[in-house]
Each structure stands twice: as C-alpha cells, then as structure tokens.
Specification:
The radius of gyration is 35 Å and the shape is elongated. The chain is built from 19 helices and 15 strands. The protein has a six-stranded antiparallel β-sheet with strand order 3-2-1-6-5-4. A five-stranded parallel β-sheet has the order 8-9-12-7-13. The chain folds into four domains: 3-166, GAF domain (Beta-Lactamase); 192-364, Rossmann fold, CATH 3.40.50; 365-445, Helicase, Ruva Protein, domain 3 (Orthogonal Bundle); 458-522, no CATH class. By secondary structure, the chain is α/β, with parallel strands linked by helices.
Amino acid sequence: MQAMEKTFFMEGTLRICGSLEIEKALGDCFNFIRNYIPLDEIYLHYYLRDLGVTRVFAMADETGGKSIDLTIKWPPELRQWLESDSFPKNVIANQADEHPLLGFVLQQMGKSKQSIIIVRLAVEENWVGAVTLWAKGWNRFTHEHLNLFLLLKRPFTIALSNTRQYRELLKIKERLADDKNYFQRQLQITSGIEVVGAEFGLKNVMEMVRQVAPLDSPVLLLGETGTGKEVIANIIHNLSNRKDGPFVKVNCGAIPESLMDSELFGHEKGAFTGALQRVRGRFERANGGTIFLDEIGELSPSAQVRLLRVLQDKKIERVGGTEPIDVDIRVIAATHRNLEKMINEGRFREDLYFRLKVFPVLIPPLRQRKVDIPALVQYFLTKKAMALGLKKIPELAPAALDRLARYHWPGNVRELENMVERALILNPAGPVEFNEISPKSIPEDFGPKGTKEFRSLLLNDVISEHLRAVLKLTDGKISGKGGAAELLGVNPSTLRHKLRKMNIPFGRRRSRTNTNLSAIDY
C-alpha cells in the first residue's frame, strides 16, 4: 500500500469509527474524503428486503453531518433487480439520471444531473447497507476514486452495523421509558380490583370471566353505561396469562375521528402537519398484553378496517408508515350500543362484529341486581371517605338503603358511586341520607311490593336480615330446587359457609320425641 493510500485508510478509519453518533462521524469523514475525491454529499442507508424499501438514515454535506429519515419504496421491477445476484456490489454512475435505479432515486429526491458512487456493505455475505457518494454534474468520478474509497469499505461496514445495533438499543430504551411512564399511571387502577357482587348479582358474569380469562380469544362486553364493563375487563386481564403485560384502555368515544387512526396505531414523522416525530399508538403500547376498547361503536370506518386487520393478521401499520408491525395483543371490546342495529344502518362492519363477538358477556344493570346495593354502598362509602380525607366513615340514615333499593338506577353503578360521593361532600359527618332520591324519582309500579325498610345501618346486619328472610321463605332448605341457594343464585357450599360465619342457624328442624334436641337437615 502506497503512503498516500495508507494515510487515507488510517485517517478515514479514525474519523468514521471515532464516534457512536454517526452524524458527527459522517460529517468528519466527509470533510476528510473531499480532499481526495470530488464530493458534495454522502449518504448512509440500508435495504429492508421483506418490505422492499430503502431507509436512508444519515447524510453529510459541507454544512456537517445530520440524521434523516427517508424511505424509498421500490417498484416491483426495480426491487427484483436490486435483489438479484446480477446487481453489482459497486457502481459508478457518472450520468445517474439515466441509470434505472439511481434515476428513480433522483426523482424521489427532486434532484438531477448527478454523479454517484454506490458501495454495498456486507458482513459475511450478509448485506447490511450501503454508502453513496454524490457529486453535482456529470462525469465527476473515476475508477481511481472508487478504488481509493474502497479502502474505507470495511470501516464503513463496521460503523453502519454498530450504528444500527446502537439505534435499536436506543429505541428499546425509549420504548421502555415510554411504557414505564404510561403504565405507572395505570398501576393503581389495574391492581387490587375488587368485584362487589361477585357471589350474588354478578355470579353468572364472573363464571363466564373465569372461563374465558385464560384464553386469548376476543371478548365483547355488553351492557348499559355505568354497569362496570371496565372493571370486568380489568379482571379478565388480571386472571389471564397476560397479567404481567400491559393493560391499555381506550375510550373510542373520547378520541376525535380525525385523530383516531393516529392515537390507536401511531404515526411516522411527517405523516401530517404537526407530526414532528414518530409516535407509537395504543396498540403498540399494548404489545404482549391486553387492549380494552371501550365504546367500540364509536370507531371511525377507517379504524374499523384497521382493527379488523389486527384481529385477522395481528399486524398494524402506523399512519404514514410503509412497514407492517407485528403485535401480540388480546382485544377486549365494550359497548352500550346495539351493534346489530348499527350494522343494518351501515355504521358498523358486520365482519368486525363477528370477529369481536367470539365470547360476548352481558353485564346486568343495577336494577336487576339490587341484592348488591348494600355491599356497593359500603364499598363506596369506605373508598370515598378515604379519598376525601374523612377520619370516620359516616353512618347511613334510617331508610337510606330502602330508598336506594326502590330507585330505578338509570346510571347504574356509576350513578350510585357518584351519589355516595355527593352525599359525603354535602354531609361529611353523616348520617348519609340520599335525599335527592325523592318519591317523584321512583316510578309507582317500580320494584317489588311491600318492601320493608332495613332495620339496621350496618352492612353485616343488612345481609343477615336478608339471608334470614330467604331462609324463612324456604323453611331452612339450602340446596335443591326452591332452596335458598337457588333463590340467591349462589353455590350451596358457599351459602353454608357464609351462614356459619355469620352465626345464622339453617336447615329444616324436626322435633324428636321425648327430647329437647333437634335434627337439622342440611
């Protein structure tokens, strides 16, 4: 190797491998190389064979090195030539405008009349990318220029390979930091969830939840607004094999239609005005976990098409993106709307509906499970008293629970929660009365006739009174047709355990002759 070539190799290698910031290294190398080779611009890029696109990620000119994000999607005929063995490893195109491949690149970049050198970079026969030298005008390069630059082929290969790995690590780091910030806000919500009514009014729902939770099948939660669909979705996730993964909640009705695709699927830098950087959507955040799409009936038509592809192919594509992204997620959807009616009206896709309706779960409204009201009231009193910083949980006023039981609850559990909070704000010392439920708000023919007022304000006393009343109706019978367990909708063993715990006698008592002892039929 001659002295000049040796100097060129050593100095060029020091510059291109001198920094992990490829923009700085490329800028330093550009200023050095142009002393030996006519040069106006230098680019680093790599080819994604599975997508048929070239990603240009760094360049340098007389102003210095810089990071860029340019994607060139090749037409089928050029892609076939680019991937063939006949495509040369090194190219000198002194009239690049007339070169089939480079002419297409110049059109994409809005340039003309350029001379270009392409040097493909490979590690053990694996093509990792390429470096191109650009000079304005025609006939600017010679074979001597190419041979001299080839001395730096190995350093450029190492630099490009290291940069791609380094950038991938940075992406992973940013993704982890992004997910950490996002999911820390969800941590308190997704842990320690309590289902009030799991053994009574929601017993059938919880049985279905336990059946479907270990699977990856989509779940469609149906029910009126405020019935607790989000709570059930949380339970399904926490009981699933994905419980250690993310749980991302999306209220489809709260996202403007113009932003829905970007919010759900993310967008690339420059995809639209204001898209200053690449942003991952909710589906990417949910990778490895569960995404809960509340108010699924509010999805825009374009988002419905994209969601259908997610369910079918487990792939998404960012707005403005060219490469599909694999996602491993479970979809739980919820709605209070009549989706079948929306299908008939052309506002919801029928194929998407049947994809979501693999396992529908209907959550009953509060008016159909009033047996849960005492437990719900006690739960919300405790929760809201803590949130409001009260030192003591206020007591319930006489007839308060009876007033709640007679109400028709159009807003369901959410309305009850808000009512408890409002009552505590108005009268934090108690007693809690729920005076806003006036006789005018209760339909005359609503609810069972002859409902008695609860005699005690304590939750256990209310439950005890109710259980004793049911046992009286069944003459102490627990199991079998017409038994207390059937009337309450619980397992007989569960009911027996509850009765023993509360010291409530049960069973049919038959007097024995000449003795004060009783035999109990369980």
